[in-house]
Write a structure and sequence with these properties.
Length: 578
């Protein structure tokens, strides 16, 4: 006789439901406590629900590079813009491409939309260029035009060029070997229109300027920096190796510059930030150079320190505009700072832009759309009403068809809702998850997925009762069959949500994320709550005896007594009959 298999539970064996219920109860308490500890009691809302600003930027090719718009540059621009926006302290911002040349930036309520617009659209091309000539910003009459200064091919300023007095621009100081150097970068008085240049040594004769230098000098002479249209055309097709004309403003007064080729650019900056100088009581922007940048900066300041004003100045040019043009009296290397008419916001904005690098493309702002908090609130209410209607219809169906079993389904839905709400709330400060309208739709769809799992289990139990089994063994025997069906169904739903999340962008990902999360929670709830609670209810007389309102009445289900096999006993054959 074969020994009984003691390691395997019979089909009707019942586990310990109390442990599973205790585990899910502990999880709910822990998640709820985490909400209070994090100080976040409601999920973060996206722009379409809480209000915010959507900025559409269109990339454009430059004269110098007619093929600048490509997939690589667009991806790089998205990453830089995203870091800039995050640098403002915004964690729910969305930056994504649309088509081949557009970038959509979604910034939630609570952020200065104008500040964000300035951040995301600024190209932030930074160059350090030697100053060749400088004058007042208005056009110079032909009779009083300043002497010419031909840019040198190497980019070093010509020491023989006769120039006017340097303008007033935000001063720049620098540090070397970690200590501040004082007195080596000086700010010159602002030239006024028609002002005469100070006495200067008679320049030595220079070779005739080439046509390019002559054209640049003419552009410099005729430039009117007080004209915004004229300023916007500067530097559109300029390369770092070109000499350029630029404008700069200080205290509302414009000056124009003739600048040599760039010696240092923004990629040589390791870190930049706006800080408050406690000693001077003013906001400044500090810049730390990379190793190679320090060498370049030391080389250019060494050359400039040997020149006479204004040839001993270098201009810090940001997106074609001179933000500072200090003079240099000694070699500098490790880092520098920009000071001037900064407040806290402008200093931190400039530091943020310089830290995250220049955009590889130029962008034009196509549209700016602002969703008010009132409109977002209306959409949120509409979503919640839709969810409530869907939930009510599911409950009505469960009560009408399953009667007492509907109690199990409703309790399971409540547990699932608590887990979903607490996890979404904690994911806000955790990973920056923001609940948008598509995510709400995903949660509504999840109600049907969760209810479907209960229905599968209930129908398996009813099948067992129809076969003539009592409730307690029916609950246990139905579980393995229902479990397989639920797992396969939820796996397909989760796979669809994962694929949708990976291949889409923006708000659609909110729908996919919510759908995937609630699908996983459906498995957790069915295993740790629905099944254990059914095991406990099967011991209660109301359900075990098949009350007419229990939803498990054998008569209503058409149960038949089980067929029992009987042995056939063959009668002995009478020898006489044989």
């Amino acid at each position: 006789m074969a020994a009984p298999n003691r390691g395997r539970k019979p089909a009707g064996a019942q586990g310990k439901p109390g442990r599973a219920l205790a585990l899910i109860l502990i999880a709910m308490v822990a998640l709820t406590g985490g909400m209070f500890l994090a100080g976040q009691l409601t999920p973060r809302l996206g722009i379409d629900l809480a209000g915010g600003t959507t900025i559409t930027l269109q990339a454009k090719n430059t004269v110098a590079n007619k093929n600048a718009i490509n997939e690589t540059n667009m991806k790089t621009a998205v990453g830089i813009i995203e870091r800039r926006v995050n640098g403002l302290g915004v964690q729910e911002a969305e930056v994504q491409t649309q088509g081949n040349s557009n970038i959509i930036v979604n910034i939630p309520k609570g952020t200065n939309s104008q500040q964000a617009r300035d951040q995301v659209g600024t190209t932030a091309k930074l160059f350090f260029r030697p100053v060749l000539t400088v004058a007042a910003g208005s056009p110079v009459p032909p009779a009083s035009a300043p002497p010419t200064a031909s840019p040198t091919p190497s980019g070093s300023p010509s020491s023989t060029a006769k120039t006017s007095t340097p303008p007033a621009a935000p001063s720049v100081s620098a540090t070397t070997q970690g200590r501040a150097v004082t007195g080596d970068l000086k700010k010159a008085p602002t030239p006024s229109p028609g002002a005469s240049s100070p006495a200067a040594p008679t320049p030595t004769p220079t070779p005739p300027a080439d046509p390019a230098a002559t054209a640049l000098q003419k552009q410099f002479t005729e430039l009117d920096c007080t004209n915004e249209a004229a300023r916007s055309k500067l530097g559109d097709d300029a390369k770092p190796s070109d000499s350029v004309v630029a404008c700069g403003e200080d205290d509302g007064q414009w000056s124009k510059y003739l600048l040599g080729p760039a010696e240092v650019d923004g990629t040589d900056i390791d870190e930049a930030k706006g800080v408050l100088d406690q000693q001077r009581g003013m906001w400044i922007v500090t810049m730390d150079f990379t190793k190679s940048g320090s060498k370049k900066f030391a080389k250019i300041t060494s050359e400039l320190s040997k020149q006479q004003a204004p040839a001993n100045q270098f201009a810090i040019v940001l997106d074609g505009e001179v933000v500072s043009a200090p003079s240099v009296n000694q070699t500098l290397s490790a880092n520098a700072e920009i000071s001037g008419s900064f407040n806290q916001q402008s200093a931190q904005d400039l530091g943020n832009i310089l830290s995250y690098g220049a955009l590889p493309l130029e962008f034009e702002e196509q549209s700016v759309t602002t969703v008010t908090a009132a409109l977002g609130g209306e959409q949120l209410r509409a979503g919640l009403i839709a969810g409530a209607i869907g939930l009510a219809l599911v409950i009505i169906y469960l009560v009408a068809y399953y009667r007492g079993l509907a109690l199990v389904a409703i309790l399971s839905l409540i547990v699932s809702a608590i887990l979903t709400y607490t996890i979404m709330t904690l994911l806000g400060p955790g990973i920056g998850f923001a609940l948008n309208l598509p995510a709400v739709c995903g949660a509504i769809v999840a109600i049907g997925i969760t209810a479907d799992s209960f229905i599968v289990y209930f129908e398996r139990i009813r099948d067992e009762i129809r076969e003539g089994r009592t409730l307690r063994p029916a609950v246990e025997r139905a579980w393995p069959r229902a479990r397989r069906t639920i797992m396969v169904s939820d796996f397909v739903s989760f796979l669809a949500a994962a694929v949708l999340f990976l291949v889409t962008v923006g708000k659609v990902q909110g729908f996919a994320f919510t759908l995937g999360l609630t699908t996983v929670l459906d498995v957790v709830v069915v295993f740790l709550f629905t099944k254990p609670i059914m095991t406990i209810l099967a011991r209660k007389k109301f359900f075990a005896d098949g009350h007419s309102w229990s939803g498990l009445d054998p008569k209503r289900l058409g149960a038949k007594p089980p067929l029992r096999r009987s042995r056939r006993i063959s009668a002995p054959i009478d020898p006489k009959e044989a």
